[in-house]
Amino acid sequence: MVNIDKTKPVMITGATGYVAGRIVEKLLKYGLMVHAPVRNPDNAVKLKYLNAIAAQSEGSIKFFKADLLTPGSYDEAMKGCELVFHTASPFVTSVKDAKKDLVDPALKGTENVLNTVNKTYSVKRVVLTSSCVAIIGDAKDLRDVPNQIADETIWNSTSSVNHQPYNYSKTVAEKKAWKMNKEQDRWDMVVINPSFVLGPGINPTSTSESFNIMKQLGDGSMKMGAPGLHIGIVDVRDLATAHFNAGFTPEAEGRHIISNESYTILQMADFLREKYGNAFPLPKNELPKWLVWLVGPMQGIPRKMVAKNFGYKWLVDNTKSKEKLGMKYRNASTTLNDFFGQLVDNGVFSK
Fold first, then answer.
1. What pTM, to 2 d.p., does this model score?
2. Are 165 and 102 in contact, with CB atoms under 8 Å apart?
3. Which InterPro entries does the record match to this protein (predicted)?
4. Which of 7, 85, 91, 170 is an S-S bond match for 131, by CB 3.0 to 4.6 Å?
């Protein structure tokens, strides 16, 4: 049982990121003081969305200079904090050197943050943003799981530096965090494992993979057909609530799958069809698996990834999030239409 004093500052890594932006918004709305370590505290353009929210909120935000991969970088920002949110980790799927660009930053970043937690005696709780990919590597893996539905007891054991390196990076980083947590008894850790995050961010021009998939739905990239991928989705605003509740629910513990329902890319397009179908070239059918397998490598989709994911159901059990963190998920149609609408309003597509 950990009670966090809301008059003390709260630190969050990756504050300018897609997920963290909505967490910061929530913390500020509740009147908290947010410590945000960022690469460049003088970059007014990068920080304008956070500053705009702070200006309209009860809470306040203070920026610190820090780099995820520099040891000791978070010392100053963490001073006096009882609660630390660690959200920063690279989310890219096409990289030149998976170990250097994905695995090392995820692992070293987590080590650096938690090393600072170990020497900052005010810290009582860490909320770590992991991912459902630390639970399931490929959709095909679910065939070995009871009822073919994954829960928090399961770990991804099939990803590697060479196959699904992003999934591997999240798995090794979360395992490292649990190891460091178990080696001491002052601070506890609550882990959030979201599925694919969608929904409007505080920054309408973000460059995350989430924005890429929405952009491809609307810009004609998929007009020949949608890839037959089945994925769980969660609204970024619901994910922020999950983090907030994980931080401030005294009895919260362990891992939490944060995911609404699972859909194919085509079903996601179907949610947008009524409002946007006439103006945008949304996909109307699904590409056959053999075709994706054939042309996938040219699009940066490895054949092994196609073989182990396309055409398989991706299902997780979100019961714990509802029972322990009080999660209520908004419907997928709202998430997708709000997100697509934000991109349309901000001129991401030229009609």
1. 0.96
2. yes
3. Epimerase_deHydtase (IPR001509), NAD(P)-bd_dom_sf (IPR036291), NAD(P)_dehydrat-like (IPR050425)
4. 170
Fold of 10-344: Rossmann fold (3.40.50)
User: Which residues is 264 bridged to in the sheet?
Assistant: 230
Which sequence spans correspond to the domains of the chain? 10-344
pLDDT of res. 101? 85
Q: Helices 18-29 and 236-248, interaxial angle, to 10°?
A: 60
The whole-angstrom distance between residue 129's C-alpha and the CA centroid of its chain comes to 7
Round to whole Å and give the CA distance between 252 and 86: 16
CA proximity to 143, closest of 320, 312, 1: 312
Instruction: Please return the burial class of 44, using the count of CB atoms within 10 Å of its CB with bins 0-12, 13-18 and 19+.
Output: exposed
Using the predicted structure, report yes or no on whether residue 327 has a pLDDT greater than 90: yes
Using one digit for the tens of pLDDT, what is the confidence trace for 255-284? 999 999 999 999 999 999 999 999 999 999
Please identify which residue in the block is written with the tokens 């505290």.
41
The confidence score (pLDDT) of residue 91 equals: 58
